[in-house]
Amino acid sequence: MTHLAAAPTPSVRVRAPGKINLSLRVGPVQDDGFHPLVTIFQAVALYEEVTAREVPPGSGVSLTVDGPQAERVPLDRTNLAWRAAEALAEHVGLAADVALHVVKGVPVAGGMAGGSADAAATLVACDALWETGLPRSELQTVAAGLGSDVPFALLGHTAVGTGRGHLLTPAMTRGEFHWVFATRDDGLSTPAVYGRFDELGAGAPSGDAPDEMPADPGLAEETGLMQALRAGDPHALGAALHNDLQEAALSLRPELARTLEVAREAGALGTLVSGSGPSVAALARSRQHALAIAATWTAEGAADAVWCTSGPAQGARVLP
Ligand code: C5P
What we know:
The chain is an alpha+beta fold. The chain has eleven helices and twelve strands. The chain has two domains: 161 residues, Ribosomal Protein S5, domain 2 (2-Layer Sandwich); 135 residues, Alpha-Beta Plaits (2-Layer Sandwich). The protein is globular, with a radius of gyration of 20 Å. Cytidine-5'-monophosphate binds next to helix 5.
């Protein structure tokens, strides 16, 4: 008897990276509720993986999620991956019929843009599955409509972000930087951190607020950081790390101060709250040093989980 193998259902697997903001400068809230930013993103080698699988016409979108902390991820339209599939379908005039499967590799609600990476990976996966052939520039436009960090998850590597963080200029870097992250089981809501930032009056116009900077503010404020990146100098980069949201995150989660202190005591070249937190990042001298900082965090009970990685990492791309 001969067995005829059924043709496999077409599917596309894409991975997209999480990120750290090496520098994040935040201006006063605007009428649209957003804050103007000048930020330098670096993608790190912690990846979300999204598989988009063909389904019969009229099936709509479905979503399953796997991996550490998967139980904390919504499985409905509030998930950014689901919204990305719908946004792309609408953009190209197709029906949003796809089964999405996400494997989490980026800490959930940690200020590392894991949800944005899911959205970026979904855009690339559905674009390939549906053979829409959109140029990357057009995918970037759809990405910007989904969230401030989604365009960077598409682009990857290291980039200066302005506007809401969605207008990107790639930045030159040399070599590899070794990062270690301390995450907490309880995430922080990004709008809540921006709200506390406003309450603290931290975005009030001052000499270094983004809206008072010159037309190319990223580079004007960040000369030292950009030089450190170009030189591949982790000591100089450690000294230049900066996050305007750190005070707001620390005021919502005071225990993060101890996490920062423990990393400094373990010889980190620089430490900061990652984005809107509550993840804390430490820059290490080497992979071995990153492992040592991670071990110290664990021993001191200063983190619920630790993640060693490196940057820069590639943006969203199709896996073979
Ligand atoms: O764009 P995204 O959906 O990631 O933003 C989430 C929330 O974070 C926004 O609704 C807003 O409250 C806040 N935010 C902001 N300014 C930015 C980016 C985000 O106030 N530049």
